[in-house]
Structures are given as structure tokens and as C-alpha cells.
Design a protein that fits this description.
Blueprint: H1 3-24, H2 34-63, H3 69-77, H4 80-112
Length: 113
């Protein structure tokens, strides 16, 4: 019997809600909680690492003279939509993080004047 059946859907939802509450506390002085502070860097590193592995795979396939290289490369080309979504999310999160820091620095500048 699976763990989901043992604890039930209500138990899973309850534990998930407790986990989300623990991630949301405490907020720092900028109003960002722990989850909001760490998801951008973690997502950025994850996308970067997977992109490097993706490119290393392509290079290995080409340099090793694999007879199935065209098939493998065409299969990797099929991941274009995945990469476009991942890089778009990463780009938007970077822009939002930069704009948030600019807004807070401008607010700090106005209070000094």
C-alpha cells in the first residue's frame, strides 16, 4: 500500500501546508521570506548546471564520432521549448530581483535627502 493511502490525502495536504508555513517564516527587513530569497539563486544554479550538462552532452556526442549523433542531437533540439520556458522564468526573476533592489535603493536615497 502506498504512503499516500496510509496517511490519506488530508494528511498530505496538512503536511504540505505546514511545510509552506515553515518556508514563509520569518520575513526579513525587506519583506522577503526565506522561500522568496532562495528560489531565484537555486533556480539560477539549477538552470546553469543543466545547461552545462546539456552542452557537454552535445560536445561528447560530436567528438566521440557516435554513429547515432544526428539522432541524439535532434532529440536534444526537441528540448528547445523546455529551455525557452526555463530561461524566460530565470530572466524574469532576475529582472524582478534587480528592479526590487533598485526600488529599495531609491527609497533609501529619498529618505537620506
Amino acid at each position: 500500500m502506498s504512503a499516500l493511502h496510509k496517511i490519506g490525502l488530508a494528511g498530505v495536504l496538512k503536511r504540505g501546508a505546514e511545510l509552506m508555513r515553515s518556508l514563509n517564516l520569518p520575513a526579513n527587513e525587506k519583506g522577503l521570506n526565506r522561500f522568496e530569497r532562495f528560489w531565484r539563486p537555486v533556480f539560477g544554479y539549477a538552470v546553469s548546471l543543466t545547461w552545462v550538462l546539456h552542452m557537454l552532452t552535445v560536445c561528447y556526442v560530436v567528438w566521440s564520432d557516435n554513429p547515432r549523433a544526428p539522432e541524439i542531437i535532434m532529440a536534444l533540439v526537441e528540448t528547445t521549448s523546455l529551455w525557452s520556458v526555463a530561461l524566460a522564468v530565470l530572466g524574469l526573476s532576475v529582472v524582478k530581483g534587480v528592479s526590487r533592489s533598485k526600488i529599495s535603493s531609491k527609497a533609501a536615497l529619498k529618505t537620506k535627502i
